[in-house]
Amino acid sequence: MVDINVVFNKHCLNYKGKVKLLCEHKGVLPKVLLQVRQIYDRIDTESIVDADNARLDYFKNNSGVCTFLKMF
Fold it and tell me: Which Gene Ontology cellular component terms are annotated (predicted)?
């Protein structure tokens, strides 16, 4: 948080002033009581172009729940 404040104070200048918003929402992850096991599999592909289709084919053939994150 300190680094963000330094950037804000040094570089975020406008002729009408500054506005800083603080998020008060803490989220819901601390409220989850069950421990969920997460399994990550590495899927090798021939090229980056084929990566999305290779992931989809892998999860279609290995039944289970698929959560696909294009970017994280």
Answer: small-subunit processome
Identify whether the C-beta of residue 12 lies closer than 8 Å to the C-beta of residue 19: no
Say what the pTM is: 0.37
Burial class, 2, CB count within 10 angstroms (exposed 0-12 / middle 13-18 / buried 19+): exposed
Rounded distance between C-alpha atoms, residue 34 and residue 53, angstroms: 32
With CA atoms as reference, report the closest residue to 60 among 52, 49, 70, 48: 52
Q: What is the pLDDT of residues 35-61, one digit of tens each?
A: 767 777 888 888 889 888 888 888 888
